[in-house]
Design a protein that fits this description.
The structure is a homodimer of 399-residue chains. Chain A has 399 residues and is α/β, with parallel strands linked by helices. Helices cover 41% and strands 17% of the residues of chain A. The first copy, chain A, has 3 domains: 4-87, Arc Repressor Mutant, subunit A (Orthogonal Bundle); 90-204 and 382-396, Nucleotidyltransferase, domain 5, CATH 3.30.420.40; 214-375, Nucleotidyltransferase, domain 5 (2-Layer Sandwich). In chain A, the strands form 3 sheets. The first copy, chain A, has a 5-stranded mixed β-sheet with strand order 5-4-3-6-7, with helices on both faces. Chains A, B: Belongs to the ROK (NagC/XylR) family.
């Protein structure tokens, strides 16, 4: 814990532009990097980087990591890389749910040190959320022997559009939070930087920093779950929209005479491409309540009904995703959400529908110009890891 | 013409980072700027900017412009501003059409010095295009007393997706050009930088540099004409997509069982939201061939049929645009294309349909979080001016 305040002061130094500051910032944003990558990303001379790294390693802020799993999988990590010392600081990630708050404490290498669910009364207020979170954080830090002065910030994932200033726009999960400014609610309690974003935007950040989009500055995240959502990343930046509404794929209104959606429009993609209705049908058929995990398990075991429901829903989702493709033509589309656990059972019919309905089809262009569609790395912890990512990116931003 | 080579060498200097270089680059990209704006945009100290500007003015590269029309309209131009001397360099903008090539020569303040249509045989080859353009350029330069050594580059607008390396992906107007690399075709003939992009992307650049999106880094351009197209600008960058297919709003496939579109999909927005079919109906009704200008004039004169056709088409287009809004939630949407000349006759029903079908509705959010929808500044010369803009932005890029 001895290096906490040194790292924090390096990250907080937005003026001097000293090499050590620029190096720890880029590491906090990108994770493990080689000296050559650091030189390229910071624009510093190789010799300057070498000198600064030697000093940072000597003072224990930066440590060497062996080429591990990531390098073996060839996802862009170098064989020998340097990373921030995991002991040098902590971040908190929060996700607000209907009747609980999920909390993780992670180190600067985004390893989860502790996680916890805080039970809440339904319709809990922002003040209650801040107080309960603060108490849980103090207890967790005490139990894990962590020092509060190493806290770099608190990232908050919200199940609603969040405007760039941190205000919740339309609250679907916690209806009473519409209009609440997350920063105003949490900053007085924590006294640390508070970063808030929509849960799908957080998930995109997790995939970009540590998942299926490492090294990719432009991609789309498409989440299929009990709802449908996602995020658009352009030039390394999650597009938020002026009111935090960008990437709301589930609310593409496809049929203006269709069923009413909770958003107030008709015929939204979410009504036919999420797994709510398929699970209702499956539950009726089997006479017991079915979860997405049940449906996936059944389909994997060869159950023709479960398989058909997943395939049909994937086809509808793929047609919606084709519209996103026609608009964005991204290099990479990552499929996330719990249904992504179905793997190829979901992916194959989804890709087929995408190719049928989108403008630029794989068969029409050279391989290097094709949109790649792949299952994401994170399907469960994505919101929370992304909330941690918000904090690290905040410090990493070289502005 | 005495300053041409000096400006060109300043623009070409990508290494030194000298204040004068950074200032002329930002001016070539942004047009007229105050000293304060230059300091902010370049990150240079005010005193450094003043000294460099004094020197640039003395050598005639930069001139002062009075606060003109733009400042009066309050679109972000300062009352007293500096701009590159229009005599200090020239750019060429080209647009490839079915049976002609449109050409403009503009100075660095993007004033058009000369324009010309070069008649071509249908299905003309890239080599023929390059040769004919070269001959026309030489004649135009000679006739206008311009020096070829002041040529900063050639921008080419293409009616098809263009991949970032300059390759035409799907050729709709000039079918034989699919797979042609525009740079390879024109560079040997001109020996100057060749920049190519889709015509809607060029139009977006024109609006961003000199039109309705001045000072706006994030916006959508939606073009309604005999086709429907557009562009998405994010963080000051036109999104191209991996194969140049981003922003193809006309090919959003809304009805998978609808009519076949020329793109190979069914039920594309362009089939119902462009003015092709309305003009056919109007022509049948009036027994003579009607153009968009005829339809607009009739509607303005109170013709109920023309007005109804424009309103209905605007409603369909607005529903399509609502999907773009749900995906991007942009601060600003600019309506372009020839039908934009209909002004409020088009805009009112279009905005009403947008508000009905998009996710984040104006009535639900604070005024500063609302998407603004407005008619663009350029409806005719947008492609050509944007092609000129490609050249200026190429030099302006501070990389």
């Amino acid at each position: 814990m001895m290096h906490e305040s040194r790292l924090k002061s390096l990250l907080d130094d937005r003026e001097s532009g000293a090499p050590a500051t620029r190096i720890v910032r880029i590491m906090s944003e990108r994770g493990a990097l080689s000296a050559a990558q650091i030189a390229r990303l910071t624009g510093l001379a190789r010799s300057t980087v070498s000198m600064a790294l030697a000093e940072l390693r000597q003072s224990g802020i930066v440590v060497e990591v062996p080429g591990g799993e990531e390098a073996a999988k060839g996802v862009g990590r170098p064989a020998t890389a340097l990373t921030l010392n995991p002991e040098a600081g902590t971040c908190i990630g929060l996700h607000m749910s209907l009747d609980d708050i999920q909390l993780v404490v992670a180190d600067v290498s985004h390893s989860v040190i502790a996680e916890q669910n805080i039970a809440m009364q339904r319709d809990y207020s922002p003040e209650e959320a801040a107080a309960a979170t603060k108490a849980a954080v103090e207890r967790t830090y005490r139990e894990n022997g962590l020092s509060a002065c190493g806290l770099l910030g608190v990232g908050v994932s919200v199940s609603a559009p969040v405007s760039p200033d941190g205000t919740v726009q339309r609250a679907s999960i916690v209806p009473t939070w519409a209009g609440v400014n997350i920063r105003d609610a949490f900053e007085p309690v924590f006294g640390s930087p508070i970063l808030a974003d929509n849960e799908s935007n957080c998930a995109a950040i997790a995939e970009m920093m540590w998942g299926a989009a490492i090294g990719c500055e432009d991609f789309v995240l498409f989440k299929i779950d009990l709802g449908v959502g996602g995020a658009i990343v352009s030039g390394g930046r999650v597009m938020t929209g002026i009111a935090g509404g960008a990437g709301e794929f589930g609310h593409l209104s496809l049929d203006p005479d269709g069923d009413l959606c909770r958003c107030g429009n008709r015929g939204c993609l979410e009504l036919t491409a999420s797994f709510n209705r398929p699970l209702e049908q499956l539950s009726r058929l089997y006479g017991r309540r079915m979860t997405m995990d049940d449906a996936i398990r059944l389909a994997e075991q060869g159950d023709v009904g479960a398989r058909r429901l997943i395939e049909d829903t994937a086809a509808v989702a793929g047609r919606g995703l084709a519209l996103v493709g026609t608009l964005i033509n991204p290099p990479l589309i990552i499929i996330g959400g719990r249904m992504a656990l179905a793997g190829d059972i979901l992916l194959a019919p989804l890709v087929a529908a995408y190719e049928k309905h989108t403008l630029i089809k794989a068969r029409d262009v050279a391989e290097r110009l094709r949109t790649r569609i792949t299952i994401g790395k994170f399907t469960e912890n994505d919101k929370l890891l992304g909330a941690v990512g918000l904090v690290l990116r905040h410090h990493g931003r070289l502005d």
